[in-house]
User: Which sequence fits this backbone?
């Protein structure tokens, strides 16, 4: 039986989601909790591999189990074995063919920036402190250039395979200003390593008048050695949701 979990975590203390030897990861903590609950050693799959320090409120992971427990029992049991900075919000029984990454049609990330004159210690884990005002109007204009299908090679970190495609589609991108806080929300079919953080970095540079809209457009014209958008720090980034073509995939058998 396959279960899909909706997971929330504070990524501050982790070296990313994906399992690594000699490093603490979100994947390892969830797999350990499953072993303690079911007695079964499993390898979970996730909709996306968040980097070190990146958070999630809507990560989707799957695992197979012979236990057959209802979803509410799985939620309670796993949370009793997980550390305080990771929580299972929902658990659903899904088809054995359901793959959280391959079946996903889109993912939505939010990058949060604090533009206040003084930093907030209570927000340091989840917000990038810039400490300067941004021209949000210019950022909105520039963000429109990023929407659609583009070669995002200049917005990518190192790829697993040098020949991997860097073509991605941005389905929606919006910028919201709330007092001294600016949030950049990006939905795409898939993302390259560090892509959202580099997109946010380029938009912040537009808001600081370090880049123009035309400069941003130029970054979308394919690979140029040594030319790349800067990445903002990881703590401001959060994976908020994963979308699937069949919206009922995660609503049956809870």
Assistant:
């Amino acid at each position: 039986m396959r279960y899909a979990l909706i997971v929330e975590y504070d990524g501050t203390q982790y070296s990313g989601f994906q399992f690594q030897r000699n490093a603490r990861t979100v994947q390892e903590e969830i797999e350990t909790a499953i072993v303690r609950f079911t007695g079964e050693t499993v390898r979970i799959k996730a909709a996306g591999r968040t980097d070190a320090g990146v958070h999630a409120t809507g990560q989707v992971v799957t695992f197979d189990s012979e236990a057959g427990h209802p979803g509410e029992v799985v939620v309670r049991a796993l949370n009793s074995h997980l550390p305080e900075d990771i929580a299972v919000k929902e658990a659903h029984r899904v088809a054995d063919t359901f793959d959280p990454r391959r079946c996903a049609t889109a993912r939505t990330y939010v990058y949060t920036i604090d533009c206040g004159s003084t930093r907030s210690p209570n927000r340091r884990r989840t917000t990038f402190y810039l400490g300067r005002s941004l021209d949000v109007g210019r950022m909105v204009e520039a963000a429109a250039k990023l929407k659609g299908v583009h070669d995002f090679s200049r917005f990518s970190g190192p790829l697993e395979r040098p020949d991997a495609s860097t073509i991605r589609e941005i389905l929606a991108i919006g910028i919201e200003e709330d007092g001294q806080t600016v949030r950049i929300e990006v939905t795409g079919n898939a993302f390259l390593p560090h892509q959202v953080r580099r997109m946010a970095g380029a938009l912040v540079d537009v808001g600081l008048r370090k880049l123009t809209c035309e400069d941003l457009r130029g970054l979308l014209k394919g690979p140029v050695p040594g030319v790349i958008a800067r990445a903002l720090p990881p703590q401001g980034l959060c994976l908020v949701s994963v979308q699937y073509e069949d919206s009922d995939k995660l609503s049956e058998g809870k």
